Structures are given as structure tokens and as C-alpha cells.
Amino acid sequence: MHVPDGFIDAPTSAVTAVVAAGALAVSLRGARRELDERTAPLAGLVAAFIFAVQMLNFPVAAGTSGHLLGGALAAILVGPFTGVLCVSVVLLMQGVLFADGGLTALGVNITDMAITTTVVSYAVFRALLAVLPRKRRSVTVASFVAALVSVPAAAVVFTLLYAVGGTTDVSLGKVATAMIGVHVLIGVGEAVITALTVSAVIAVRPDLVHGARGLRQRLKLRVDGVLVDAPAPVAARTPAAARTSRRTLWATGLVTSLVLAGFVSFYASANPDGLEKVAHDQGIDRKAEKHAAADSPLADYGVRNVSNARLSGGLAGVIGVGVTVVAGSAVFWALRRRRPEDVSPVDTGL
Fold it and tell me: How far apart are alpha carbons 162 and 168 in whole angstroms?
């Protein structure tokens, strides 16, 4: 759903840039409350994983494909404020290095793909957890539904932005019907990827999943006819074991991201994604502009002067994952806050 330059006029793009800048400023402050020395590395990894999975377009309808947006996944794993920053880092890397998503439309893309998906998905996620049983399975179910809803929500926001500042004269009814229809289907893919990823991380380190915090109910004991909280269980993990577990999770996630971007991406669907397809069919792309980074050595997810398509795309994917994880980790490590439990003699690790 990366919006190219020329789809939305300059005034509207400028307004969304201001909105995006404000949201990023708020997210930077909010991320300081969400991140600590345990979760900051995971946030950088989440950004790299989203970059990698976005390269894996999957077919959703005749001649159309879709890919992960990632807002729901990031919000649930590392928190909504950090989630906005994760997706924004990905969009910045894609726009500057790979000519994917216009530079003048960066505010549009952050507003639509980072802010909208994260805010909507996390609101749905928390609402569902409030009524579902307090179990890990509920986190997976809520993740699925939240991700499913977030994608058509982004399609609605794009339609509204197009209604305000679209550069072509196209029936808004047709645009809305086409965008929402195809992105409901893409949302199913988003939901599956998000739920599987969240459940996989919960199975290994539930304490690192932001959306799963506070779900464990304290054991109750009946004493003299009155229910009281049982004593907290004695921690079983040493700090060294907890660090090893986090490092294993991080290394496994990074290797997975590299394999997805460097190898599996070659087998992704070559069909245009939902926005590209709708734009072509409805004529939205008539005033699309050449990307300012179209001559980048990595434009269109290929390495210039590497003739082998598989090798070129694989190298570009690996470079993208590497740059994203470094940039994201630098931002999140700088934002982290040391908390008392980070320096306590025992890290339970759940």
C-alpha cells in the first residue's frame, strides 16, 4: 500500500507530513515508557522482520497481491508507540534506499501504514483482551482479529486522503469499493502472519510480548474461608540464562528475516499489490511521478549491475534487513529506559 509521489497533491501531503511528525514525536516519548534493556533489541528486530516480510507479496485475487503492513504485529509485540516507530523506520528505509513509496508522500505513508494500522489494531486488540479469557490463546485470537481489521482501516484512510487531495478525477465510490474490497482479503493474510508470529514469540518468551503483559492471574488460596493471593513463585532463571534466551530469540529472528528477504522473496507474487492494482484499474496513477530515488543502487529491490535476478533481489533483501535492524536498534537502544528489574539479581523470564 505504499503511496507513490503524485497520487496525493502537495497541500494534503504537507498536512500529513505534519501529522506524521507530530505522531512520531509523541511516539518517541511514549516509547521511552515501553522500552527497556530487554525489549529494545526486540524492537529493532521487529522492524527488520517487517521489512523482510513486506517483500513477500502473496496472491489474494485474480491479478492482485498483498503484503504485510506490520502495524498490528509491531504494536502487539513491542507496544503501540514503539510500533509506530518500527513501521516508520521501515517506510523510511524503503523510500530512501529502495524507491518504494514516494518521498513527498512519506507523510501519507506514515499516516496510513504506520499510525492508522497501529492505533486501530491496538485499540481492537485491547478491547478483545478485555472480554476474552486471560490466557495466551486469547492474545493470539485478538492478534488475528486486530490485524484483520487494521488493513481495510488503512484502505479507508487512503480513500479519505484521496477524497481530500487526489490528483485525478475518479469516482470516490469506485475507489472506496475497490480499495476496501481487496484489502479485506489482504487483511486475512496479515492476520495469519501476525497471529503466527505473535504465538511463536509467546511460546518462547511471553514476558517480552507487550500485549501479553498482565495476563497471568495470581493464584488464589483460601485461608480461613477468605481468598487471598498466593505468594509469588520463586524465580527459576538466572540473569545469564535470561540473557541467553533473549539472544537466542534475537538471533533466530534475524536469521529468519535474512532468509525470508534473501531467499524466499524470490518466490513472492509478481502481481501488483492492492493499491497498485486499484490505481491502475481506476486511473488514480495517471499523474504518478518518478521517484526521486529511482536511480538508487537498490531501487526496486535489486542491486545495480548484478545481472542475475535471484542474486540481485536476494542481496537487496539482505542489505535492507541489515540496514533496518541497525537503524531501528540504534533508535530503540537510545530510547530505552533502565528499570529496577533490569539490574535485579534474578530475571524470571517467565
Answer: 9
Matching residue, cell 493464584: 219
CA 214 to chain centre: 23
Q: Quick check: helix, strand or coil at residue 61?
A: strand
Percent helix, strand and coil across the chain, each rounded to 5? 65, 5, 30
pLDDT digits (tens, 9 = 90+) for 258-300: 999 999 999 999 999 999 999 999 999 999 999 999 999 999 9
C-alpha 241/C-alpha 235 separation (Å) is: 12
| Domains defined for the chain, CATH in brackets | 10-342 (1.10.1760.20)
| Distance separating alpha carbons of residues 311 and 306, to the nearest angstrom | 7
The pairs formed by 317-320 with CB atoms below 8 angstroms and a separation of 24 or more are 317/52, 317/55, 317/258, 317/260, 317/261, 317/262, 317/265, 318/258, 318/261, 318/262, 319/97, 320/51, 320/52, 320/55, 320/93, 320/94, 320/97, 320/98, 320/261
Helix (H) or strand (E) segment spanning residue 127? helix 117-131
Instruction: Show Cβ contacts of residue 64 under 8 Å, excluding neighbours closer than 6 positions.
Output: 182, 271, 272, 273, 274, 277
Distance CA 300, CA 147 (A): 27
Look up residue 31 and give its three cell numbers: 516509547
Task: Give the count of beta carbons closer than 10 Å to the beta carbon of residue 288.
Answer: 17
Instruction: Pull the grid cell for residue 300.
Output: 526496486
User: Among 43-52, 181-190, 236-245, 320-329, whose mean pLDDT is lowest?
Assistant: 236-245
> In angstroms, rounded to a whole number, what is the distance separating the alpha carbons of residues 293 and 94?
10
3-class secondary structure, 113: helix
Site of grid cell 526486540: 42
Q: Are 206 and 212 in contact (CB under 8 A)?
A: yes
DSSP 8-state class, residue 230: P
CB 4, CB 276: distance < 8 Å: no
Q: Kindly give the pairing relationship between strand 64-66 and strand 226-229.
A: unpaired
The predicted model scores a pTM of 0.89
